[in-house]
């Protein structure tokens, strides 16, 4: 009892001392502020050029405000010195900001929101970029230098492949491509690893084939060869582009051995075809420092307006992803039965090569459907994302022309690149998003000449099914008419 009384007395005295210190500090800051307060402008020209700010109570808006400022006021020269001397990090600290190329308030608020979705803890962070490709290239540039080796899947986004071929290899970086899909993927990665390997890159679900990479297996084999990051800080960085799944389905940083999660936020996280954005998240302070330096010196943070729009889009991500998945399953079932379709790749179909059944199959692991625990399955429906790939029947030029006609014949689905928006989009990879990849490499990655990719939106599912069916039927009817003539 005596100890409790003494503890309470000490705590009360400590609180009073802290209050007095806070009052003194506040008074000093107020005095300092008053001493350095700018003079009230009197001339017209100076009034025009002066900065006017709202009252202190204006910061109580529910939505985060948009900060467009490129530079920030400093308390004194020492304050500026501290800010310039600090090590790059994902987020600022209580000292505030110095220059928007190094980060800004709206950008940081959005980054923290995505970091929460990705499962980033206090050690790491999320950085936002002006596009998904800017995030990808910044992540790679932060980890690779001349003489290093990296492993990539054959089926990788066309822009990523182009960066590797047009830049990385000319900078003296050695690259191997492998078939990363399915249960054999981890061993394919393992066979490609070298002593100088610094990046193990995954894209899952793959764009556009929707094949799944066994991330648990990849993390395991990298640990087997190099040890965990705690054991070996020089271990390769395992990076995952999870744009197709989003954190709604796939939280890559929860998987042992995975270091970096990349999202093209232009797609599902933004969700409305009105911004370009990318995010890179990691629990590693070392990695966050490296990529923050790349962002500061070479690329740039996402601008304030797009950061705001991205935050607004994320608010509906959960409900949008459910609708995308419900619609896509109906569309995939129709495509799978159509006579002009040779193959349909959708994780929700039983014939998907990575959907082998059971809770441990790769599809089940990759699609969490917004669930936070196994118990959520009792009331949250299982969905499989909004991306579908299918191959029209035929070979070579015949398949190529058929695929183009199917895309061009759609009247509800929009012919456009990109994906993940509320409206449905269709594209033909061989002539559009992956046209820069040599045909032999494209075919090795499963990107056939007749492959079509659909991003299923949140329209009425029956409208989408009918639109795709009429376009497929029309191509068949036109070919019959040509043969009859």
UniProtKB/TrEMBL annotation:
<keyword id="KW-0198">Cysteine biosynthesis</keyword>
<dbReference type="InterPro" id="IPR054542">
    <property type="entry name" value="Cys_met_metab_PP"/>
</dbReference>
<keyword id="KW-0663">Pyridoxal phosphate</keyword>
<protein>
    <recommendedName>
        <fullName>cystathionine gamma-lyase</fullName>
        <ecNumber>4.4.1.1</ecNumber>
    </recommendedName>
</protein>
<dbReference type="GO" id="GO:0005737">
    <property type="term" value="C:cytoplasm"/>
</dbReference>
<dbReference type="GO" id="GO:0019346">
    <property type="term" value="P:transsulfuration"/>
</dbReference>
<feature type="modified residue" description="N6-(pyridoxal phosphate)lysine">
    <location>
        <position position="267"/>
    </location>
</feature>
<dbReference type="InterPro" id="IPR015424">
    <property type="entry name" value="PyrdxlP-dep_Trfase"/>
</dbReference>
<dbReference type="GO" id="GO:0004123">
    <property type="term" value="F:cystathionine gamma-lyase activity"/>
</dbReference>
<dbReference type="GO" id="GO:0030170">
    <property type="term" value="F:pyridoxal phosphate binding"/>
</dbReference>
<dbReference type="Pfam" id="PF01053">
    <property type="entry name" value="Cys_Met_Meta_PP"/>
</dbReference>
<keyword id="KW-0028">Amino-acid biosynthesis</keyword>
<comment type="pathway">
    <text>Amino-acid biosynthesis; L-cysteine biosynthesis; L-cysteine from L-homocysteine and L-serine: step 2/2.</text>
</comment>
<keyword id="KW-0808">Transferase</keyword>
<keyword id="KW-0032">Aminotransferase</keyword>
<comment type="similarity">
    <text>Belongs to the trans-sulfuration enzymes family.</text>
</comment>
<dbReference type="GO" id="GO:0019343">
    <property type="term" value="P:cysteine biosynthetic process via cystathionine"/>
</dbReference>
<dbReference type="GO" id="GO:0008483">
    <property type="term" value="F:transaminase activity"/>
</dbReference>
<dbReference type="InterPro" id="IPR015421">
    <property type="entry name" value="PyrdxlP-dep_Trfase_major"/>
</dbReference>
<dbReference type="InterPro" id="IPR000277">
    <property type="entry name" value="Cys/Met-Metab_PyrdxlP-dep_enz"/>
</dbReference>
<dbReference type="InterPro" id="IPR015422">
    <property type="entry name" value="PyrdxlP-dep_Trfase_small"/>
</dbReference>
């Amino acid at each position: 009892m005596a100890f409790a009384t003494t503890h309470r007395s000490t705590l009360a005295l400590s609180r009073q001392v802290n209050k007095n210190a806070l009052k003194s500090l506040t008074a000093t800051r107020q005095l300092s502020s008053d001493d350095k307060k700018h003079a009230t402008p009197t001339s017209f020209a100076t009034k025009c050029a002066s900065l006017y700010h709202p009252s202190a109570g204006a910061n109580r808006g529910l939505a985060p405000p948009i900060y467009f400022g490129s530079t920030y006021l400093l308390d004194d020269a020492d304050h500026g010195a501290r800010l310039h001397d600090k090590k790059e990090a994902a987020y600022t600290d209580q000292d505030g900001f110095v220059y928007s190329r190094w980060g800004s308030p709206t950008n940081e608020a959005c980054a923290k929101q995505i970091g929460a979705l990705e499962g980033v803890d206090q050690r790491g962070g999320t950085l936002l970029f002006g596009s998904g490709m800017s995030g990808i290239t910044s992540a790679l540039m932060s980890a690779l230098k001349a003489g290093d080796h990296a492993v990539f899947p054959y089926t990788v986004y066309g822009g990523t492949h182009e960066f590797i071929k047009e830049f990385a290899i000319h900078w003296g970086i050695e690259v191997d491509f492998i078939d990363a899909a399915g249960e054999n993927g981890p061993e394919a990665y393992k066979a490609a690893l070298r002593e100088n390997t610094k990046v193990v890159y995954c894209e899952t679900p793959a764009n556009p084939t929707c094949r799944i990479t066994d991330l648990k297996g990849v993390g395991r084999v990298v640990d087997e060869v190099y040890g965990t990051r705690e054991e070996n800080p020089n271990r390769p960085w395992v990076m995952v582009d999870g744009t197709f799944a989003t954190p709604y389905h796939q939280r890559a940083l929860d998987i042992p051995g995975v270091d970096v999660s990349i999202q093209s936020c232009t797609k599902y996280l933004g969700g409305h075809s009105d911004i370009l954005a990318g995010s890179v998240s990691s629990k590693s302070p070392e990695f966050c420092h490296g990529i923050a330096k790349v962002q500061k010196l070479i690329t740039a943070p996402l601008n304030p307006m797009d950061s705001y729009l991205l935050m607004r889009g994320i608010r509906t991500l959960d409900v949008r992803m459910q609708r995308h998945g419900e619609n896509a399953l109906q569309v995939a079932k129709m495509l799978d039965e159509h006579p002009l379709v040779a193959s349909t790749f959708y994780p929700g179909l039983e014939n998907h090569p990575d959907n082998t059944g059971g809770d441990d199959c790769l599809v089940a692991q990759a699609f969490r459907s917004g669930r936070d625990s196994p118990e959520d399955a009792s009331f949250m429906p299982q969905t499989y994302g909004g991306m579908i790939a299918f191959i029209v029947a035929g070979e070579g030029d015949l398949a190529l022309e058929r695929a183009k006609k199917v895309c061009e014949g759609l009247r509800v689905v929009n012919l456009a690149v990109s994906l993940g928006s509320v409206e449905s989009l269709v594209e033909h990879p061989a002539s559009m998003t992956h046209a820069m990849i040599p045909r032999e490499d494209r075919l090795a990655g499963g990107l056939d000449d007749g492959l079509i990719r659909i991003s299923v939106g949140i329209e009425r599912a029956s409208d989408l099914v009918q639109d795709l069916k009429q376009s497929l039927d029309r191509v068949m009817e036109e070919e019959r008419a040509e043969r009859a003539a």
